[in-house]
Every structure is written in C-alpha cells, then in structure tokens.
Design a protein that fits this description.
The protein is of the alpha+beta class. The protein contains 13 helices and 21 strands. It has a 6-stranded antiparallel beta sheet. A 5-stranded antiparallel beta sheet has the order 5-6-7-8-9, with helices on one face. The radius of gyration is 36 Å and the shape is elongated.
Length: 567
C-alpha cells in the first residue's frame, strides 16, 4: 500500500502528541532523508522525513542511521534555523500528502520567529521546504524551476505555492449524496473512478476498502457502505491498525484497516518497521548485486583469459612437428638443391621412413626454412612452459572467484556482503576494480575490526560450526578449531568449511549429519548424493600464498549424503 493521503492523515494525527517538542538535533543520513531529534516531557523522539520516490513518508523512528562525517548544506541550513525551535503545530490540507510543521524559533535579535517545514510526499516529486512566516522559501532539499519542466519555482527567496490538483477533496464533501453524485455518472471501474476523482486515495486502499465492505456492485447501497467505511477511517484515528500482507512468506505490503487495538504511536512505529525492513532489503540487494556485477565482470575476464591460454596450448602441441621438420630438412640438406620451392617430400626415419610432405616458404632456401622451424619450435617450447604456469594460476584464480560468487549468492545481510567486499579489497585480483568503484561512489575505505560469527548447530549434544565466507572459513579451521576436531567440505564443490568439535563418542550418525550440513552450505545444496570429504583438522593445511578459504588435506574419507535430509 502506498503512503497515500489516508495513511498520512492517520500518521499526522498521532504526531499531534509531539506538538510542543523542542528540536535539539538534525541529521541528513542520505540525500532523501532528514531526521529531527525531538525532546519533550523528559523523552527523546526522532522524526523521520523521507522523500525517496518509492518510500516517501513521515513517521517517528527508533532505528538508528549512519550519518556522514560532514553534514550536507541543507542539513546545516536547517540546524541554523531550527535547532532550539519548538514545534507549535502539525497539520495537513485535506488528504493532500502535504504536511506543514510549524516551528517557533528565537532569532539573533532574541525575537520569536515562525518557520514552516513543509513536507511534500508526492513520489518522485517529493520535497522538504523551509519557509518563513511570510511564505518565502528559505531553502529546499530539491530545487525546481521552469528549466526542469516544473510548473512552479522551488528556489530560495521565491514565494512558496502549493501543488496544483484537479482532484476533489474527500474531506470537503457535505454528505454521501455529494460523494455519490461525483462518481455515479462515470463508466470507469469503481476503483479507478474513486482514485481519479478524489485526492489522497491509492488504488490499494480503495481495493482493500471495497473488499472489507464486501462490495460487489456499484449500487447506491454498496457505495454508501464504502462511503461510511472511509468516514470511519477518517473520524476514528484511535481505532485504526495496519495489517501486513505476505507474499512468499515475506511481508510485501500493508493495509490500513478500521478497528484493532491502537497504542500510542503504534501506526508510526508500524510504518517505521515496515519501511526500515524494506529499505534494508533493497540496500542489501542493490549492494550485493553491485559487488556481484564487479566480480562477474572479473570472472568473465578470467574465463576469456583461460580460453586464450587453452588456444595457445593447442598451438604449442604443434612444436614437436616443427622440430621434426627442421631435423628432416637438416638431415637431407646434402640431397637438396638450393632451389626455392613451396614444399618437399622426405622420409620420416622416426616412422618407418614413411614419406612426409613438409611445407616450405618459397622465399627461403631449405637450410633457412630448417632454421625457421627450429626457431618456431624453441619459441613454442618456451611458450608452453610459461603458458602452462599461467593456466595453473588462472584456474586457481577462477576457483577463488567462483567461491566468492557462491558466498555472495548465499548472503542474507548487509554485514555479510560488507565482509566479502573487505575480503576482495585485499586481493590483487579485485583491487583495481574496487578502487575504481570507491572513487566513482566517493566511498572512503575505512577498515573495521573483523568479527567472526560462524553459523552454529547443536545436534544431539554435538557442537557444529559453519563458516560464512572465505575469511571465516580460514579462521574457523586454523584458529578456532583444535587439531582433533573434524573438518568437513564438499568434494570438488564450492562450499563452507564445517567443524565438528571433538567428542569421545563420535558415531557414524553424527558424521552423516555433519556431512549433510556441509552439503547444505554448498553449491550442491539442492542436489542429492553429494560427496563430502572429512578428516581431522590436523590434516588440513594452507599452502603458502594461497587465497582465503583455499586448503589442501590428506587422510580423508568421503561420505555421500542428501542435504535435503537435514532437519
């Protein structure tokens, strides 16, 4: 459900309880949000004003936000004009999503001065505007003028004008007949008719109201039910509640409904939690996808490099042929004239003297052609040694990059993505791309102290730990685990390190469960009959210079398990 005029009205009604609050702090955590720190009757509140196109709203918040070290200019202006001010009124005009916060401040001449903080919640046209008592704009979060196709100027020193709307104000209707007369003569769908006729109604609200009233037609009796339902919503601010709408076991939307136990600020805090979870989820997805794109670009680059290396190795397989050509020509120079020809037929004494046709460059003599073949052989032989090493290194890098992709695909929180970003920031494979990304986004790289928090299982009295990323896998195996603990990992499949703490009575059943956990936390989590290697931690080694999470192990055994069987 959109934060429409109906929702805004109910939220603002609750906010009248903070009238008289003193503004003691102002923050701007991002370019779409202003947070006012309020103090009243011995209590602190935080008023969140967000003008993001998809999440615009105003509400009290209990969720902390990270603020920039240097406050943006609009935030500094608000601090200059509003810090120490008292909120004297909060109001709306009808059901327009336009909230006016009236604030009394003391100016430099020690005189009481009135300011208005106007919050326009209109999707991508949302704005926060500070005006003086004469309705002159002091400044706005977003500046608008005719050059940006705006029908009004939102600029400092201009007179503030309210947004225009051709829709009717539902709160100005006299009675049901007035409502009925405005919609009964239209042929459109009832929901569309009401949304297009009256301001402040979203499609989702009208749809939920119609469902609540069980309206099946556009008869006068049914429309009167709908009218009375909306009137009850507007006239009973203390008897309203939000209902969560679930999709795929996740909260996807909410509906304002009449009735239900309403505690103080309960509507505000519902909105606060709903949008905080949504924004956290959106931030997580956007951040993860941006890191994933960076890594997939590098993965593509290394795959292309491997294709090129394999092509070069195929070419190097011809080196013995060129050596043979050179030897045969050299061995038969006494028989050959110094004539320049395009090919020559000679007996191959390495293959029962079978005749072999050797191509020659007509520009050169047979002796020079032989030298050219030996030179080509020598070049390919040296190239083979170098390219073979490059292939081993490239395959190792690809294996590591694919492990990062697996980790990212299985992340569930912003912190986990940040841990992976810090891991790749230390790796030379990603360093150049990471620096470009930080420069583009103007992000200062400030390292935090890494906190390890592996996934824990407690099964039948056994403690089992699972690493969430490569760094944590290394820590789990080489720092946390004891040499007599058991180590599990899927065989030749990217996955997490799993540690079973040593116990004198380890039996086959717990081994199978640990193997199932290892398979569950791997790329083969939806497969069956997954091979899982296990051994004592003392047999797991980390080669010098190897990437995080990369290990070698010996004295291992293998179990084939189905990860779907783990409870």
């Amino acid at each position: 459900m959109a934060f429409d005029g109906i929702v805004a009205k109910s939220i603002v009604t609750e906010l009248t309880d903070i009238i008289g609050s003193k503004i003691d702090k102002i923050y701007e955590p991002d370019r779409n949000t202003i947070i006012l720190g309020l103090y009243t009757q011995g209590k602190h509140f935080a008023l969140n004003i967000c003008i993001d196109a998809h999440n615009c709203r105003i509400n009290l918040t209990t969720h902390s936000r990270i603020n920039p070290l240097v406050a943006p200019s609009f935030c500094m202006l608000l601090r200059k004009h509003l810090i120490g001010g008292i909120i004297s009124n909060i109001s709306m005009i009808g059901l327009e999503r336009l909230i006016n916060i009236e604030i009394k401040t003391i100016n430099e001449f020690n005189e009481i001065e009135e300011k208005n903080l106007i919050v326009e919640l209109m999707g991508r046209h949302s704005n926060i505007i500070l005006t003086n008592k004469n309705n002159i704009i002091v400044d706005a979060m977003r500046h608008l003028d005719s050059s940006s196709n705006s029908y009004r100027d939102i600029l400092p020193s201009r007179t503030y004008t309210f947004p225009n709307s051709d829709k009717l104000d539902f709160t100005a209707l006299k009675d049901f007949d007035d409502f009925y007369n405005n919609i009964s003569n239209k042929d459109d769908d009832l929901i569309k008719t009401i949304v297009d006729t009256f301001t402040g109604f979203s499609t989702s609200f009208v749809k939920s109201a119609i469902q609540s009233c069980k309206i099946e037609s556009n008869s006068k009796n049914d429309l009167e039910k709908l009218y009375n339902y909306i009137i009850n919503i507007l006239n009973s601010p203390n008897n309203l509640s939000f209902k969560k709408i679930y999709k795929n076991d996740k909260v996807s939307d909410y509906v304002l409904a009449y009735g239900g136990l309403s505690e103080k600020f309960s509507l505000n805090f519902f909105i606060d939690d709903f949008y905080f979870e949504r924004e956290t989820s959106e931030s997580f997805i956007n951040y993860r996808n941006s890191i994933l794109k960076l890594i997939l670009d590098i993965l593509k680059k290394y795959n292309s490099r491997l294709i090129s290396i394999n092509s070069k190795l195929e070419e190097c397989k011809e080196m013995d042929k060129y050596k043979l050509y050179g030897e045969l020509i050299t061995a038969n120079l006494y028989r050959l004239n110094d004539n320049h020809s395009s090919h020559i037929e000679l007996e191959n004494y390495y293959d029962n003297n079978k005749i072999i046709d050797i191509p020659l460059d007509i520009k050169y003599s047979p002796q020079t052609n032989a030298k050219r073949y030996f030179k080509k052989y020598s070049k390919l032989k040296n190239a083979y040694k170098i390219v073979s090493i490059q292939k081993t290194e490239t395959e190792a890098e690809l294996n590591y990059i694919e492990s990062i992709v697996y980790e990212l695909e299985n992340c569930s929180t912003l912190e986990e993505v940040q841990d992976i970003f810090e891991e790749i920031s230390d790796n030379i494979v990603f360093k150049e791309r990471v620096k470009k990304k930080e420069k583009k986004n103007k992000v200062s790289k400030k390292k935090k102290k890494y906190i390890f928090s592996p996934i824990e299982y407690d099964i039948d009295g056994y403690k089992i730990y699972v690493g969430r990323n490569n760094k944590e896998n290394d820590w789990l195996t080489f720092t946390f685990a004891n040499k007599d603990d058991l180590w599990f990992h899927t065989k030749d499949i990217h996955g997490s390190h799993v540690i079973l703490k040593a116990n004198n009575s380890i039996n086959n059943e717990i081994l199978i469960k640990c193997a199932q956990i290892a398979a569950k936390h791997s790329k083969a989590s939806i497969s069956s009959n997954v091979p899982v290697d296990y051994c004592y931690v003392k047999f797991v080694k980390k080669p010098s210079g190897s990437k995080p999470g990369m290990v070698i192990f010996t004295n291992n055994k293998t179990l084939n398990v189905n990860p779907q069987d783990i409870k």
